[in-house]
Design goal:
Radius of gyration: 22 Å
Number of helices: 17
Strand order of the largest sheet: 5-4-3-6-7-11-10
Structural class: alpha/beta
Shape: globular
Number of strands: 11
Order of helices and strands: HHHHHEEHHHHHHHEHEHEEHEEHEHEE
Length: 355
């Protein structure tokens, strides 16, 4: 985002133009990051510590001249640094978040964002006019069901699953320790994908019995490499089904992490009602979502990140990001009369609702 700081001797009209241009060229910045990840630039450099343009171009099969431009842009973005001898090295940011093998690596998330979401955002104007997702024009799958498009092929399904797995490698511990979850022995992560968040919960709360519930196709992928390694006993159970139609397993605590924002209020109410019935009298619910602050609240966090995420839902799904009050209302409607919210480090809030 553009800086709001005034530059010395900058006229108001010059600042306005600068800010507008920074907004308008934002997509170029994201493409630098996406392309460097796709080419494997950060991994090539990590393999030897430093590398010159020629070595990087040869390793990535790229044009030396254009490679130099990309590397110099990465330097300006703080992803690389260049030494006096002209060789390039990864910065701390790149080493931590963009090099394969780092426990915090977000490379697959970058590759996912460069694909389906980026194409859908190119149709934002149509989405606003039509009030519907844009998969038909963006990826050639005309459907109102978001995961039919996101999972349109096995490689796309795996990329999405790995992207979310990387998200929880950074944010999972924060959202799972916002509340003490040790009293909940039996836990079901509904829509839990690869099981990354469920495995983190099992690690943090060793006495828990954790099940991931997701579609049969996702569950099959989650039980195979790269998500599970041969010979290593899984720390969670996996169960396939449709959470809108299939019988949900009984649990003390149900987790819905980045699930409700994909769906309409009516669909969310139906899912929460089914969870309420499946769990019985003592059921609790853990929601993890990016929250929209109440409109006009000057003390709340910045609205823009959550608004952008909500627009992301508009171009891709049936849902949207919501306010804390809206989640309170949805959970109360399903019989969860108690509700607490904690803002965690990172983009998500954690909400605990119980009967």
């Amino acid at each position: 985002m553009a800086s709001d700081e005034w530059r010395e001797d900058e006229a108001p009209e010059d600042r306005d133009f600068r800010v507008l241009m920074e907004y308008a060229h934002g997509f170029m910045v994201s493409q630098v990051v996406f392309s460097a990840c796709d080419l494997g630039v950060f991994d090539v450099i990590a393999a030897s510590g430093t590398a010159d343009v020629g070595a990087i171009a040869r390793a990535t099969g790229s044009s030396p001249g254009h490679t130099r431009l990309l590397l110099e842009a990465c330097v300006e973005l703080g992803l690389l640094r260049v030494g006096p001898d002209g060789t390039f090295a990864n910065t701390r940011l790149a080493s931590s978040l963009l090099v394969a093998g780092s426990p915090r690596c977000q490379r697959h998330m970058m590759l996912y964002l460069a694909g389906t979401p980026y194409r859908c955002w190119g149709q934002l104007g149509r989405a606003v006019r039509e009030g519907r997702s844009q998969y038909g024009r963006a990826v050639g799958v005309d459907t109102e069901e978001p995961f039919v498009a996101i999972y349109r092929s096995e490689p796309e399904r795996l990329l999405f699953m790995r992207a979310l797995q990387e998200t929880w490698s950074v944010c999972g511990g924060h959202v799972l320790t916002a509340f003490d979850l040790s009293p909940f022995r039996v836990v079901c992560d509904v829509g839990g994908g690869s099981g990354a968040l469920a495995c983190e919960l099992a690690r943090l709360y060793p006495g828990s019995d954790v099940t991931v519930f997701d579609t049969p196709e996702v569950i099959a992928a989650a039980q195979a490499p790269p998500f599970q390694s041969p010979g290593i006993e899984p720390v969670v159970h996996f169960l396939g089904g449709d959470f809108f139609r299939s019988r949900l397993p009984a649990a003390d605590l149900y987790i819905l992490a980045r699930v409700l924002h994909d769906w309409t209020d009516e669909a969310c109410a139906g899912l929460l009602g089914r969870i309420s019935m499946a769990g019985g009298a003592g059921t609790a619910l853990l929601l993890v979502e990016a929250l929209l602050p109440p409109e006009g609240d000057p003390t709340g966090p910045a609205r823009l990140p959550a608004l952008l995420l909500s627009l992301n839902m508009a171009v891709q799904t049936l849902g949207r990001e919501r306010t804390e009050a809206e989640y309170r209302a949805l959970t109360a409607r399903a019989g969860f009369s108690h509700f607490r919210m904690v803002r965690t480090r990172g983009p998500y809030a954690t909400m605990l609702a119980w009967k």
